[in-house]
Write a structure and sequence with these properties.
Elements lengths: L6 E8 L9 H5 L5 E4 L2 E4 L9 H5 L5 E8 L4 H27 L2
Antiparallel strand pairs: 1-4, 2-3
The chain binds iron/sulfur cluster (2 copies).
One iron/sulfur cluster (SF4) binds next to α1.
Length: 103
C-alpha cells in the first residue's frame, strides 16, 4: 500500500519552560494566533502564518519556528469539519438577528 506523506507547514512553537507570560508576542501577532493561557503563550496553529514577528518580539527567546505536520484528512472528514463550521456561523448569525430584533 502506498504511504501518504504528511503535509508540513512551518509554525511558531512556544517553549513553556522559558515563557514568562509577558504577552509581548500576542501584541505583535497580527493574525491573532497567540493567546495567554495559565500565564503561558499558546499558539493556534490554524491561524499561524509563520511571519516570525513573535519570535523577534519575545524577550526570552521562548518561541521557535519548526515544521508542523498537518494530519491527512479524508474527503468525508473535511466535509464534516466544514459542516460544523457552517453550523457555528449559522448560529452566530441567528444570534445577531435576535439581538437586532430586540433593539
Ligand atoms: S513574548 Fe515570549 S515570554 Fe512573553 S508571553 Fe510570549 S512567548 Fe512568553
Ligand atoms: S509566527 Fe506570526 S502568525 Fe505565527 S504566531 Fe508568530 S506572530 Fe503569529
Amino acid at each position: 500500500m502506498q504511504q501518504s506523506t504528511p503535509l508540513l507547514a512551518w509554525k511558531a512553537f512556544v517553549n513553556e519552560n522559558i515563557c514568562v507570560g509577558c504577552g509581548k508576542c500576542t501584541g505583535v501577532c497580527w493574525t491573532g494566533a497567540i493567546g495567554i493561557v495559565n500565564k503561558k503563550a499558546v499558539v493556534d496553529f490554524s491561524r499561524c502564518i509563520c511571519c516570525t514577528a513573535c519570535v523577534r518580539a519575545c524577550p526570552k527567546g521562548a518561541i521557535q519556528i519548526a515544521p508542523y505536520p498537518y494530519p491527512i484528512l479524508h474527503r468525508d472528514q473535511v466535509l464534516e469539519r466544514i459542516k460544523t463550521q457552517l453550523n457555528v456561523v449559522r448560529y452566530k448569525v441567528e444570534e445577531l438577528e435576535r439581538s437586532i430584533e430586540e433593539i
